[in-house]
Amino acid sequence: MGACANCVNGELTVRELTNARIEYVKQQILKKLRLSRRPAVAVPVNSLPMPVAEGQTLSAGADKPPEFDDYYGRTEQKIIFPVEGECLTTGRYPFICLQFELPPDVEPEEVTVVELWFYKERDPLDEYNQTFVISEAAHWDSQQQFKKTKPIAIKETDVGEGWVRVELAWAVRVWLEGMERLHTLHVACRTCQLRRAPLSFHEKHRPFLVLYTKYAGKRRRGRTLECGATTSECCREPLYVSFRELGWDDWIIRPAGYHAYFCKGSCAPISAVSQADSYHHNIIRKYFYSVSNERKAEFKPCCAPTTFSSLQLLYMDSNNTVTQKTLPNMVVESCGCM
């Protein structure tokens, strides 16, 4: 992606060059995710709950994430899939208990929003709005002290079936501060006439917990010449990376692929570059005038990326946790002679 097209051995074919660039992109993605190889995913991506599979949980601004100065991807979202478990105590209303483990790599001050998503089935015996009470289930803490069931959120919904979202950020921050990762949510329906709370555990409708974390940075942009049929000077050439064609669509949920681009084309002689006015050309000019006359003759500018933007991924890791990360410097935004 960042290699100089006019600096590569001319014996390579266009297909070989394209394959080499895509292989470079693959290695960059793995490195920025701190992975040595693609994760071994036990849960098929096509069996994920519909809001996750369709990207409804993606952070705002997912199409054009801000830039930041780092190499590795920055976590913006974690999606946890609770399992149906048992509670130490019951209650007077129909309920379900959801057991889950908070991720170890999220700090309490990083958490901005936490949402519990569950799919509410219709209760044919209820003619009015349904009221759900979400509580931290009674449990023994790490100091072997018994904690009673404590309500943390109330959600009223209409009687129709569908997805329900409940905000739980303050409770999750408290849990993270307490360094306790294993938790159980007691979800009770105060108005339901059924024997159990009408939460679906169908694979497309199973509940999940979304943690959104802080993200800050500024975007860098530059102008560039797009390559055309008759363009010979330094320009930006399209390069689309399809995760399906790579066989990575079983662990990368979103996007289906992305435009990485690369730079190619000829550059003006060093004398012309040294007269141009830009930050990169100023660096070249300083270096050019610092070397001897013999080395100046060897100095040949090369077409290369000058600015990048980020790629935002929603993917499944080996622990079957869905994570949203922004990978810096993955899209070539502009090219120049360097």
Topology:
Elements: H1 14-32, H2 50-53, E1 74-80, E2 83-85, E3 95-101, E4 111-120, E5 130-136, E6 139-140, E7 146-147, E8 150-157, E9 162-167, H3 169-177, E10 182-189, E11 208-213, E12 235-237, E13 240-242, E14 252-254, E15 257-259, E16 262-264, H4 270-273, H5 279-290, H6 293-296, E17 303-316, E18 322-337
Antiparallel strand pairs: 1-11, 1-18, 2-3, 3-10, 4-9, 4-11, 5-8, 5-10, 6-7, 12-16, 13-15, 14-17, 17-18
Tell me what the structure shows.
Its main location: secreted. This protein has helices at 14-32, 50-53, 169-177, 270-273, 279-290, 293-296; strands at residues 74-80, 83-85, 95-101, 111-120, 130-136, 139-140, 146-147, 150-157, 162-167, 182-189, 208-213, 235-237, 240-242, 252-254, 257-259, 262-264, 303-316, 322-337. With 338 residues, the protein is of the alpha+beta class. It has two domains: 18-38 and 221-337, Ribbon (Cystine Knot Cytokines, subunit B); 82-205, Jelly Rolls, CATH 2.60.120. A seven-stranded antiparallel sheet has the order 9-4-11-1-18-17-14, with helices on one face. Strands 2-3-10-5-8 form a five-stranded antiparallel sheet, with no helix packed on it. Strands 6-7 form a two-stranded antiparallel sheet. It is elongated and about 80 Å long. Residues 2-9, 61-66 and 216-222 have low confidence and may be disordered.
Question: What is the CATH superfamily of the largest domain?
Answer: Cystine-knot cytokines
What fold name goes in the CATH topology slot of the largest domain? Cystine Knot Cytokines, subunit B
Low-confidence stretches: 2-9, 61-66, 216-222
Helix content: 10-25%
Portion in strands: 25-35%
H/E topology pattern: HHEEEEEEEEEHEEEEEEEHHHEE
Instruction: Quickly give the CATH architecture of the largest domain.
Output: Ribbon
Largest sheet: 7 strands, antiparallel
Strand line-up of the largest beta sheet: 9-4-11-1-18-17-14
What is the CATH C level class of the largest domain, in words? Mainly Beta
